[in-house]
């Protein structure tokens, strides 16, 4: 179980940190061309975002330590699942790397044209890091217990090392990697984790007799990948997967002509 927690923690940190690194690297590359004197504001905002994320994680850990029960565990799992569903669907429907880059370009250009350019850039850097950091704290809280803390720390260390290596490679390669398959893979991972956490949340409520428990016979491999061992949890997972299927299959809007020209 500790090894499983370590792998999940590392993957969560890699996925959340990956998106923040891509945002910062793309903005930094743009600023080097348009306004190199403004890069310091971006880094300052990112640093404050990291500090705020650590403070948020510490506050959440302290609060959870004071109120540690199955109900809180269930709510945490479902909240994390909701965030993963939203983020995974968002990334999937915006997997076109040209449109993604164009959106970042428009955001940075708007900041550069504002009266308080350093403040605007700092806010972009802060929100890019803090949004991912805050979500990471919530996701990890859904995985963590006293018994799994060692595995989680090992996973976080591995994930941090992977992010450091990835950052070095991104800077070396000028962020020229295929974003479409990358975003597709990470969005599918998030949706998979959301389905797992929905089942985990239902199980926490079942342990308090808040939800009935009717067992379903499953192969060991199915339970190992997170399929719920109860009909109630399995029904919740199927509802989630059905909604995910609709989102993934829903046609995207056609690009706006002006945006297409910008791309």
Automatic annotation (TrEMBL):
| Transmembrane parts of this sequence | 6-30, 42-65, 71-92, 113-130, 150-170
Q: Which Pfam families match?
A: FTR1 (PF03239)
**InterPro entries to which the protein is assigned, alphabetical:** FTR1/Fip1/EfeU
Q: What does the UniProt keyword field contain?
A: Membrane, Transmembrane, Transmembrane helix
Give the molecular function GO annotations.
Answer: ferrous iron transmembrane transporter activity
- Localization per record: Membrane
The UniProt entry's GO CC annotations, sorted and at most eight, read: high-affinity iron permease complex
Coarse class of the primary localization is membrane
**Which membrane topology describes this protein?**
Multi-pass membrane protein
* Similarity remark: Belongs to the oxidase-dependent Fe transporter (OFeT) (TC 9.A.10.1) family.
User: What protein name applies here?
Assistant: Iron permease FTR1
Species name: Dankookia rubra
């Amino acid at each position: 179980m500790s090894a499983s927690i370590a792998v999940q923690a590392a993957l969560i940190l890699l996925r959340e940190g990956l998106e923040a690194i891509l945002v910062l690297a793309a903005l930094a590359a743009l600023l080097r061309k348009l306004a190199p004197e403004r890069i310091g504001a971006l880094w300052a905002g990112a640093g404050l975002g990291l500090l705020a994320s650590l403070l948020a994680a510490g506050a959440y850990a302290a609060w959870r330590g004071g109120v540690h029960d199955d109900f809180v565990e269930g709510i945490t799992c479902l909240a994390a699942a909701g965030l993963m569903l939203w983020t995974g669907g968002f990334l999937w429907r915006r997997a076109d790397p040209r449109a993604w880059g164009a959106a970042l370009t428009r955001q940075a250009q708007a900041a550069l044209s504002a009266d308080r350019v350093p403040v605007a850039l700092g806010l972009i850097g802060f929100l890019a890091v803090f949004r991912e950091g805050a979500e990471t704290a919530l996701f990890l809280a859904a995985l963590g217990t006293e018994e799994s803390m060692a595995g989680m720390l090992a996973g976080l260390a591995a994930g941090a090392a992977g992010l450091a290596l990835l950052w070095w490679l991104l800077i070396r390669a000028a962020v020229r990697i295929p974003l479409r398959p990358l975003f597709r893979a990470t969005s599918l991972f998030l949706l998979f984790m959301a389905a797992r956490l929905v089942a985990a949340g239902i199980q926490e409520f079942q342990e308090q007799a808040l939800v009935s428990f009717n067992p379903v016979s499953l192969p060991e491999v199915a339970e190992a990948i997170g399929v719920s061992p109860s009909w109630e949890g399995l029904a919740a997972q199927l509802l989630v997967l059905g909604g995910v299927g609709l989102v993934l299959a829903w046609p995207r809007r056609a690009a706006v002509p002006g945006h297409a020209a910008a791309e």
